[in-house]
C-alpha cells in the first residue's frame, strides 16, 4: 500500500491527483497524523523533510526503512541505526545517481509510467517570486524556472500542468 501525505487546501483536487500518481490512500497531514493511526509501513520516504525518523519509527514494520531527504537532520540516526536496531535511516551524502538510475528513469518516461507534476512556472527573472511561493509550502508538484519564456509555459499558472 502506498500512503501519501500532504496538505490539501479546501476545494483542491490534490487527493485525486495524488491517487492518479499511485497513492492508495491520501492523508491531509493538517488533519490526521499517519504516525498515530496504528498502521505500519515497510518504507517511509519523507520527500520534504517534514517528519523525523524519531517520529516515524513506530510506524515502520520490523526491518523497515526511513528514507531521509533532510540533509544532516537524521545523520546521527543513520549512523546509529546502521549498527543497532531493526529499523534503518537511509540516505546518501551527496545524493548519487548512477547511469543505471538515469536509464531507468528514461525508460519510465518513454513508457509513459513517469509523470512529472508542474504546479507553476516562472520566468528566470522572477526567481524571487518563485522562491516565495515555494516557501509558502502550498505547492503541489514542481515549480519551474524558464529561460526565455519557454513555449506554452505561462508565469504563475494557477492550474496544474502535467508533463
Tell me the strand percentage band.
15-25%
Terminal-residue CA separation? 25 Å
Element string (H = helix, E = strand): EHEEHEHEHEHEE
Beta strands, count: 8
Q: Which percent range fits the helix content?
A: 10-25%
Total separate domains: 2
Contiguous uncertain segments of 5+ residues: 152-163
What is the CATH C-level name of the largest domain?
A: Alpha Beta
- Gyration radius from CA atoms, angstroms: 18 Å
The overall average pLDDT, rounded, is: 76
> How many H/I helices?
5
| Sheet with the most strands: spatial strand order | 3-4-5
Instruction: Report the major sheet.
Output: 3 strands, parallel
Q: Which topology of the largest domain does CATH recognise?
A: Rossmann fold
Within CATH, the superfamily of the largest domain carries the name: NAD(P)-binding Rossmann-like Domain
Q: Which secondary-structure class do the elements indicate?
A: alpha/beta
The CATH architecture of the largest domain comes to 3-Layer(aba) Sandwich
Shape: globular
Key features of this structure:
163 residues; alpha/beta; 3-stranded parallel beta sheet; 3-stranded mixed beta sheet; 5 helices; globular; disordered C terminus
Describe the structure.
The protein has 163 residues and is α/β, with parallel strands linked by helices. The chain folds into 2 domains: 3-90, 3-Layer(aba) Sandwich (Rossmann fold), CATH 3.40.50.720; 116-162, no CATH class. 24% of the residues lie in helices and 23% in strands. It has helices at residues 14-20, 53-56, 75-81, 99-110, 127-135, and strands spanning 3-6, 25-28, 41-45, 60-67, 88-90, 117-123, 142-146, 161-162. Strand 6 (117-123), helix 5 (127-135) and strand 7 form a beta-alpha-beta unit. The longest helix is centred in the middle third of the chain and has 12 residues, at 99-110.
